Amino acid sequence: MAPAVPRSGDAIFANVERVNAELFTLTYGAIVRQLLTDLEEVEEVNKQLDQMGYNIGIRLIDEFLAKSNVTRCVDFRETAEVIAKVGFKMFLGVTASVSNWDTEGTCCSLILEDNPLVDFVELPDTCQGLNYCSILSGVVRGALEMVSMKTEVTWVRDMLRGDDAFEFQVKLLKQVPEEYPYKDDE
Amino acid sequence: MIGAGKMKQYTNVLDKPLSKGRQEVSLSGFAYLFSELVQYNQTQVDNIGELERRLEDAGYAVGVRVLELLCHREKGNRRETRLLGILSFVHSTVWKVLFGKVADSLEKGTEHEDEYMISEKELLVNRFISVPKDMGSFNCGAFVAGIVRGVLDNAGFPAVVTAHFVPVDGQQRPRTTILIKFAEEVLRREARLG
């Protein structure tokens, strides 16, 4: 049986069911507002958003692998490319670009010019420390952890704080070898 | 820029051109986000009534913004003053923009003058949600009920809006009905307008 050919992000996005991005944007805004009212501390909200993203990521990776037919990535470079081109396109409808590779190839930046989460959003003065898109970094972290890569994801540039694009840095901490849940009978 | 105490936005968000509303994200992306919303709220409440109320409040905020956005973009800033006008706005325009299709049906309640019902075979938000038996009549459509309430309230038609499951013969999943009960003042005004 011939192996399935990996599909491009555009092709997959055209095939999945889609909803209006504004519903998505407004729902995300409602979530952030609820968190701000409940938790009040901006740092707590950042952490909670990251956690929510993590929860989403661990489930999202299954769907991603099922729909995109990607083959096993050879190295972290390929992983980052796949996330940026296929992953983001498939779920958010926008592509990201990868840059700023370090010499060892374990750390890179993903840059988003267009981000559906932040349409209509403006950060008030009281919330300047808020990483509004923390959920995205959580999703990437969660998804990669489920494919045996422990990563650390940090935000570098944020358009809501006056920068010109959204940039987050993904750093590969270690590759965790897959553990089988069964012990061989001795 | 040096000095200024507060950070300056790159562009004032109000100066940015309003998008046409054609951009899309995947349904699964939205479904994941919504499930996180529900899960987070579950940790914050003790009972179902409160959970529904929180989802409704979240939806209310969405409704407020949807009304402003759509009034400007779709209707050229014309304001609805009649009951049927605002109801058909919700049933057609709002539903079309948010969910991609007009609502399945809009009915007037037979028992009470002030009740109207918008029905949908399968609400978008409920598609990937299954409610465990011990949660009784809980309906995540409360989020959509909140959106409708937000739209109606801010258009000047205060109402109580709730979401209910209505079992349908021959269908495995029940239909969802959004029940709208308008406040007294709305009906009085409507009667005055003739």
UniProtKB/TrEMBL annotation, chain B:
Subcellular location: Endoplasmic reticulum; Golgi apparatus, cis-Golgi network
Single Gene Ontology BP annotation: endoplasmic reticulum to Golgi vesicle-mediated transport
Keywords: Endoplasmic reticulum, ER-Golgi transport, Golgi apparatus, Transport
GO cellular component: endoplasmic reticulum; TRAPPI protein complex; TRAPPII protein complex; TRAPPIII protein complex
InterPro entries registered for this protein in UniProt: NO_sig/Golgi_transp_ligand-bd, TRAPP-I_su5, TRAPP_component
Gene3D superfamilies listed in its UniProt record: Trafficking protein particle complex subunit 3
One Pfam match: TRAPP
Similarity annotation: Belongs to the TRAPP small subunits family. BET3 subfamily.
Complexes and interactors: Part of the multisubunit TRAPP (transport protein particle) complex.
Protein name as annotated: Trafficking protein particle complex subunit
Organism: Helianthus annuus
